[in-house]
Each structure stands twice: as structure tokens, then as C-alpha cells.
Amino acid sequence: MIVLLEVSVRILIMIALGFTLRKLKIIDEHIQKGLSNVLLYAALPMSILASSGYERTQDLTQAMLLMAGISIVYYAISLITMYFISKKLTFNDKKRRVFVTMSVFANTGFLGFPLMEALYGQKGLLLAVVYNMAYNIFMYSFGVHMLSGEVGDFKKMILNPVSLASVVAIIIFISPFKIPIIVETPIKDIGALTVPLSMIIVGSGLAPIPIRRILSDYSAYLVSFFRLLFWPALMIVGMLFLPIDPQTKAIAVLMTALPCGSMNVIFSEKYDCEPEFAARTVVQSMVLMSISLPLMILVCHFICKAS
Predict the structure, then answer these.
(1) Could you tell me which of 130, 124, 151 has the C-alpha nearest to residue 140?
(2) Contact yes or no for 132/251 (Cβ under 8 A)
(3) How many CB atoms lie within 10 A of CB 4?
(4) Cα dist. 128→35, 36, 63, 124, 166 in Å?
(5) Helix, strand, or coil here: 106?
(6) Distance in angstroms (rounded) separating the CA atoms of residues 15 and 243
(7) Whole-number Å distance between alpha carbons of 155 and 25
(8) Could you tell me the pLDDT band of residue 26, with boundaries at 50, 70 and 90?
(9) Are 213 and 280 in contact (CB under 8 A)?
(10) 216: helix, strand or coil
(11) How many whole angstroms separate alpha carbon 166 and alpha carbon 26?
């Protein structure tokens, strides 16, 4: 419990630092984009590759397979459910489509990877990588189809730094080959930038947003309810009936409890599908996460018995 509290405080301090640096204009929009590119093209892939050095055991291999199954079931059920719920809403067609993807697809990579690594070490990161592979499959197929009406972009699903690093890390993990220590050390050093860099970027991204306008968008609250509370609560119920280790349960719950993913905004802009609503909702869910995520971590500690 004390460890979780310490991690939560660390994360909040790093987010506050990013927020302050942006307010002081030490970080501007160009620096923000540069930091994001460093994270996505260097730190995050290196962090994923570093997780491949985690000791392979039968229990961990089983946990990875279970996590793959859990994430696939989650995406299948949530997409179908949110599609039918959206039909009952009075939103226009484009807003209904964004509502579905925003409610289902969380920020599993940008936030999920560093958070799981901070909470549960390399095991947490490795299981988050497995969860995120299901995200890539569903987001770049069903998600893109939902927003555009076109066939999903399978090329982008595979050919991006995070996906490539994920595949390579899992191949290395299950193979007898291990990265030489002289190469592994700088990989770990670069990967260690992921947590502080990502949290500083999150804080910096929140700074220029007019919070009053974000918090007055009541349609976005409905998305945040499903994204931050409804689906994580159902995941908790599901985890109670699965005979798996507490940390795997907690990781599955917390990966499902993350705020809306930024890819929703990128694709909604690309296909002209309510991009402003998507952007407001992403930021709102990020703000509300500061309340919901610590609560979910506490729930996981007591219900899933994860330390």
C-alpha cells in the first residue's frame, strides 16, 4: 500500500512539473512535440525492449497468455456494447461513432506502459505490452472502420515503433536469445526516461487547456463515465472469478481504467469525425483520471489483493 502511495505521489509531482514548465513557457508547443517524438520513437520502444530481459517463468508465460485473452474479450464485448448504446443516444452520426471509440480505446501505450512499469516493474510493462497488442489490432481495424467507414489500416497497426518493439520484445522473451549486457544497459538507460518524460508531457499538455470549458461538456462526461468507471468496474467483477495472480488482475483492471487515448483525436481529425469533441473528451478524461485512477489503484489493492 505504501509503495502504491509513493508511486502515485511520484507521478503527480512529475505531472505538476510538466504543467508548471508549460505555464512558465519553458516548454512550448514545439518543445512539446519534440518531447513526444522522443518518447514515442526512442524512450518507449527502448523501455519495451528492456522488459524482454525479465526472467521467463511458466507463471509469467501463463499470465501473458491470459492477458492476451482478457484484452481481446474486453475489446470485443466493449465495442459491441458501446455500438448498441450509441444507437440510443440523440447524438448525430459522427458524434455517435466517436463516442464508441472514445469509450472503448484508452491511452494504453503513452500512459499505460510507464504507469504499469512504475507500479509493477518489468512484469507490469511486459503484460501491458501484451494488452496493448490487442488494442492495436482492434483500434487500427474496427476503430478506423467505425470512424471512417473504410477498411482498417493494418499497415499502421504493424509498422509503428511501439508495435514493432512489442513484437521484438515478446520474440526475445520467449526465445533462448538474450540481449548482450553491453547493449542491454544503454537500452535500459534510455527506457528509464519513459516514466518521467511521459508524465511531464501529460502535465504540459494540460496547461494551456481552459479547464472550465472542458468540464462543462456534459456529453464528454458520459464518455468519461464508461471509460473511467463502467468498464473498469466490470473488469474488476470479471477478475474476481478468474484464478490468476493478483498483479495480473490489477494490471488488467488498471489498463482498462486509463483515460481516452489520443489516437481517437488523431483519427477523428483525419476522417473529419467530430475532432473538437474528441479533443475535449480526451482532456476531460485526463483531468478526471487524477481522481478515478488513485481510487482504482486502491480498489485493486483491497479487492485484487495486489501490492
Answers:
(1) 151
(2) no
(3) 18
(4) 22, 20, 11, 6, 10
(5) strand
(6) 36
(7) 38
(8) very high
(9) yes
(10) coil
(11) 33
Using alpha carbons, list the distances in angstroms from residue 244 to 59, 241, 252: 9, 9, 11
Supply φ then ψ for residue 93, to 5 degrees. -60, -45
- Run of H or E including 14: helix 2-23
Q: Smallest Cα–Cα separation from 223: which of 134, 292, 298, 151?
A: 292
Give me the domain span that covers residue 89. Answer: 2-303
Which residue is associated with the grid cell 509469467? 60
pLDDT per residue over 213-258, tens digit each? 777 888 899 999 999 999 999 999 999 888 889 999 999 999 999 9
Of the pLDDT bands very low, low, confident and very high (cuts 50, 70, 90), residue 207 is confident
Task: Take residue 270 and report the three cell numbers written for it.
Answer: 483525419
Number of domains in the chain: 1
Please, are residues 185 and 38 in contact by the beta-carbon 8 Å criterion? Answer: no
The three three-digit cell numbers of residue 75, written as one number? 475489446
Amino acid at 194: T
Chain segment 28-82, per-residue pLDDT in tens: 989 988 888 888 889 888 988 887 877 778 888 899 999 999 999 999 999 999 9
- Cα separation, 230 vs 235, in Å, equals 9
Rounded distance between C-alpha atoms, residue 77 and residue 104, angstroms: 10
In 67-106, which positions are buried (b, 16+ CB within 10 angstroms) versus exposed (e)? beebbeebbeebbebbbebbeeeebeebbbbbbbbbbbbb
189: domain CATH number is 1.20.1530.20
The helix/strand/coil state of 260 is strand
CB 173 within 8 A of CB 52: yes
Q: 253-267 burial string, b = 16+ CB within 10 Å, else e?
A: bbbbbbbbbbbbbeb
